[in-house]
Design brief:
Blueprint: H1 5-13, E1 14-16, E2 24-27, E3 31-35, H2 36-49, E4 58-62, H3 72-88, E5 91-93, H4 100-107, E6 114-117, E7 131-134, H5 137-144, E8 149-152, E9 155-162, H6 171-182, E10 190-195, H7 204-212, E11 221-223, H8 228-236, E12 256-261, E13 268-270, E14 278-280, H9 281-284, E15 291-294, H10 302-312, E16 322-325, H11 330-339, H12 341-347, E17 351-352, E18 372-375, E19 391-394, H13 397-406, E20 434-435, E21 467-474, H14 481-484, H15 498-501, H16 513-520, E22 523-526, H17 539-546, E23 549-554, H18 559-568, E24 571-575, E25 589-592, H19 595-601, E26 605-609, E27 614-620, H20 624-632, H21 635-642
Parallel strand pairs: 3-4, 3-6, 4-5, 6-7, 9-10, 9-12, 10-11, 15-16, 15-18, 16-17, 18-19, 21-22, 22-23, 23-24
Antiparallel strand pairs: 1-2, 2-8, 5-20, 13-14, 21-25, 24-27, 25-26, 26-27
C-alpha cells in the first residue's frame, strides 16, 4: 500500500511509535520557530532544561507580534530573546524583518523537513511540502533540546482540486470554501493533503494561504506536493538546492476525501464570529464597511499585495473607510518600494503598517464601536480585534481592496478583466535582519538579559491521589484560546509575566473568574465542544495552572490546547456521556476520588458531583506518555526526570 506525502515525511522522521491512526508517534524535528508573544516563555522553559545548545538543524526566533512599544515590556522581551538566541545557537529575526510564517516560507522552509512552531499558523510551511505543525512553547523547547515531538497519528484527508480559479477568485476563497464544507472542527485529528490537477494552477503563495488557514479547520497540519512550482519559487529565493520532489504514491489510501472545483468558486466571506461562518460575497450583500485591513501571515505576500496595488492604482480609498496594509516581510516591502507599487498604495490613501502581525492579534488598528472590518486575516473571533463588539469579516485581498474603494462589501468581479501578476524570477535577497548566534567559543560568555517583567515558569506539582475542587467556570461550545487568555495591545506585553496575566483569564467570558479562583482554591473548568480552538498560545494553559485549575472537563478538545494542558500538568477530560455536561453547574463541589490510580491504570476517571449527589465517568485525553507527564506534574517535570528522551 502506498503512502501519502505526510506519511512519507512521518516515516522518515519516526523515532517512536507505529503509524497507526490514533497511536502516539514521536517525530524527529528538523526546524523550530518561535515568535515573541510565545517565545519568551519557550526560552525560559528551554533554559530550565539545562541544554547548552539547540540540537535542531535550524531554530529561528522571530519578533513579529509585540512590536508596539508603549512601555519597556516588549523591548525587554525582545532583548531577552536576542540574548538567548545568541547564546544557544538560534537565528534571530529582528523586529521589522517580517511575520515568522512569511519569512520562514521565503528564506528557511525546506520540502520534506519537519517544522514545529509556537504559533498555530506554522502549517503555512505546508505550502512548500513541509510537515509543519503548531505546538506549545514547551513542546518547541523540548524539540530544541533534542527531544521528539509527540502527536497522535492523524487520519489522512485528501482535498482533490480540479479546474482553475476564475478571474478575481483567489486562494483565500478556496480555503473559505473548505471551511464551509468541513467546519472549524472538521480537521481535528487529520492532516489535510491537497492533490489533483488543480494543484498545478496554484503558486506557492496561494498554496501557503490555504495551508495557513488550515489551522482554522482544527487540522494537525495541511500540505501540498513539492513540484516544479515549488522548485521555481525556491529558485527565485536563491534556494533551489533545498528543493526535493514530493508526491503521494498513486495507490496511497486516504481516510476521507472531498473535492473542490476551483472553476466553480466565487468570492467568499467568513462572517462574524467564526472562520467557518462562510457565505458568498454576493449573498452577504453591500454592507457598509468602516475599516479594511490587508496583511497577516495569511495574505501579505508579494503576490497578494501586487494585486492590491493594481486595484488601488490611480484611485482613492472611500472617505468612510480606514485602510491599513501590512507587508508580510521586509523582502515584500522592499520589492513593493522598488517597483512603484508601494507608491500606488500610499497615493490611494492606505495607512502602511510595519511588517508584523499587528491588527490580526489586536495589536493596534481596532475598529470603531460595532464597526464592520473586512480583514484578509485568518480569525474573526469575538473581541480579537480589540473592539468587543467589532464585526470582523474575513475576505480575500482582492475583495478587501475593491471594498475599500467603494465603501461597501463588493464582489471584485465587478472590476472586469483581471490583473495578471507574475511571481518574479528572482526575489530581492537580503537577510541582513536575521542575526546569527555567537561563535561556538563565545557562546558560554554571552549574558542573558532579563527585564523586570520576565517572571519564572509557574510551579507544577505531581498529581495527587485524589482531587477535591470546585467548578469555578462553566462555558459552552467553541471556546477559543482568545476567550481563555485574550491577546491585544493591553495584555500581550505581559506574556512573560504569568501572575499579571492571570488578571485577564477568561475575561471575555467571565471577568470575575480570576478572583473566584483566588477566593476558592483548586478548581475544574467545564466546557462544551471544541474547547481551546484557535491560537497555540500555551498561556491559555499556564495561566489557569497559576490560578489553581487542576482539570478541564469538556465534550471535546482542540488538539494543541489539549496537549498544552497536559504539558502544564492540567488533566484534560472529556465526558463519556455528553449528557453529563448538564449535571454540573458552576460552583458545584467536584471530587475525583481515585484520580492518580485511574490515570496510572489508563482507565476512565470517576467524577463525583458532591453538590448534586451524582457520579459519572470521564475519559482522560492522554497518550501513555502524556499520562506519565500529568502524573509528574507536566512536561517540564517529566523531562527533568527522564531527560529529553525520544
Amino acid at each position: 500500500m502506498g503512502l501519502t506525502i505526510a506519511q512519507k515525511i512521518i516515516k522518515n522522521h519516526l523515532v517512536s511509535g507505529e503509524m497507526t491512526v490514533g497511536a502516539d508517534v514521536g517525530l524527529r524535528i528538523d526546524q523550530t520557530l518561535t515568535q515573541d508573544a510565545t517565545g519568551t516563555m519557550a526560552y525560559l522553559e528551554f533554559e530550565a532544561m539545562g541544554v547548552p545548545r539547540v540540537k535542531t538543524e535550524l531554530s529561528v526566533a522571530y519578533i513579529d507580534h509585540n512590536t508596539l512599544q508603549t512601555g519597556f515590556e516588549n523591548a525587554d522581551d525582545h532583548r531577552f530573546i536576542q540574548s538567548v538566541a545568541k547564546k544557544h545557537g538560534i537565528r534571530f529575526s529582528r523586529p521589522g524583518n517580517g511575520i515568522c510564517h512569511q519569512v520562514h516560507l521565503e528564506r528557511f522552509g525546506i520540502p520534506g523537513k519537519t517544522l514545529i512552531g509556537s504559533d498555530s499558523h506554522t502549517p503555512t510551511g505546508g505550502g512548500i511540502g513541509m510537515l509543519a505543525m503548531g505546538a506549545g512553547g514547551l513542546d518547541v523547547a523540548v524539540a530544541m533540546g533534542g527531544g521528539a515531538y509527540h502527536i497522535s497519528m492523524p487520519k489522512m484527508l485528501r482535498v482533490n482540486l480540479t479546474g482553475k480559479l476564475s478571474p478575481w477568485v483567489s486562494a483565500k476563497d478556496v480555503i473559505l470554501k473548505v471551511l464551509e464544507i468541513l467546519s472549524v472542527k472538521g480537521g481535528v485529528g487529520k492532516i489535510v493533503e491537497y492533490a489533483g490537477e488543480g494543484v498545478a494552477t496554484l503558486t506557492v503563495p496561494e498554496r501557503a494561504t490555504i495551508t495557513n488557514m488550515g489551522a482554522e479547520l482544527g487540522a494537525t497540519t495541511s500540505i501540498f506536493p513539492s513540484d516544479e512550482i515549488t522548485r521555481a519559487f525556491l529558485k527565485a529565493q536563491g534556494r533551489e538546492q533545498d528543493w526535493i520532489p514530493l508526491a503521494s504514491d498513486p495507490d496511497a489510501v486516504y481516510d476521507e476525501e472531498i473535492s473542490v472545483d476551483l472553476s466553480s468558486l466565487v468570492p467568499m466571506v467568513a462572517c462574524p464570529h467564526s472562520p467557518d461562518n462562510v457565505k458568498t460575497v454576493e449573498a452577504v450583500g453591500k454592507i457598509k464597511v468602516d475599516q479594511v485591513c490587508i496583511g497577516s501571515c495569511t495574505n501579505s505576500s508579494y503576490l497578494d499585495l501586487m494585486h492590491v496595488a493594481a486595484i488601488l492604482k490611480g484611485k482613492t480609498v472611500h472617505p468612510d473607510v480606514s485602510l491599513a496594509i501590512a507587508p508580510g516581510s521586509k523582502q515584500v516591502y522592499n520589492m513593493l518600494a522598488e517597483n512603484g507599487a508601494l507608491a500606488d498604495i500610499i497615493a490611494a490613501g492606505a495607512r502602511v503598517l510595519e511588517c508584523a502581525c499587528g491588527p490580526c492579534i489586536g495589536m493596534g488598528q481596532s475598529p470603531n464601536s460595532h464597526g464592520v472590518s473586512l480583514r484578509t486575516f485568518n480569525r474573526n473571533f469575538e473581541g480579537r480585534s480589540g473592539t468587543a463588539d467589532g464585526q470582523v469579516y474575513l475576505v480575500s485581498p482582492e475583495t478587501a481592496a475593491v471594498s475599500a474603494l467603494t465603501g461597501v462589501l463588493t464582489d471584485p468581479r465587478c472590476l472586469g478583466e483581471a490583473v495578471e501578476v507574475k511571481l518574479p524570477e528572482r526575489f530581492l535577497l537580503n537577510d541582513n535582519m536575521v542575526a546569527l548566534p555567537a561563535p561556538a567559543d563565545e557562546m558560554d560568555s554571552v549574558e542573558i538579559l532579563r527585564g523586570p517583567n520576565i517572571k519564572e515558569f509557574p510551579v507544577t506539582e505531581a498529581l495527587p491521589e485524589s482531587l477535591s475542587v470546585k467548578a469555578l467556570l462553566k462555558v459552552g461550545d467553541n471556546i477559543t484560546t482568545d476567550h481563555i487568555m485574550p491577546a491585544g495591545a493591553k495584555i500581550l506585553p505581559y506574556r512573560s509575566n504569568i501572575p499579571y496575566l492571570s488578571n485577564f483569564c477568561f475575561g471575555v467570558c467571565d471577568k470575575d473568574f480570576p478572583q473566584r479562583c483566588r477566593d476558592n482554591g483548586p478548581s475544574i473548568v467545564v466546557g462544551g465542544q471544541n474547547y481551546g480552538q484557535g491560537s497555540s498560545r500555551e498561556h491559555a494553559a499556564l495561566v489557569p495552572l497559576y490560578l489553581g485549575v487542576k482539570a478541564v472537563l469538556v465534550k471535546s478538545f482542540a488538539r494543541i490546547h489539549c496537549a498544552n494542558l497536559a504539558n502544564a500538568g492540567i488533566l484534560p477530560l472529556v465526558f463519556e456521556n455528553e449528557a453529563d455536561y448538564d449535571r454540573i453547574d458552576q460552583m458545584d463541589e467536584i471530587v475525583l476520588p481515585n484520580v492518580r490510580a485511574e490515570i496510572e491504570a489508563g482507565s476512565d476517571v470517576t467524577v463525583e458531583n458532591r453538590t448534586k449527589g451524582v457520579a459519572f465517568k470521564a475519559r482522560p485525553v492522554l497518550s501513555s506518555r502524556q499520562q506519565q507527564m500529568v502524573l509528574a506534574g507536566g512536561l517540564l517535570n517529566y523531562t527533568r526526570e527522564n531527560g529529553s528522551e525520544n
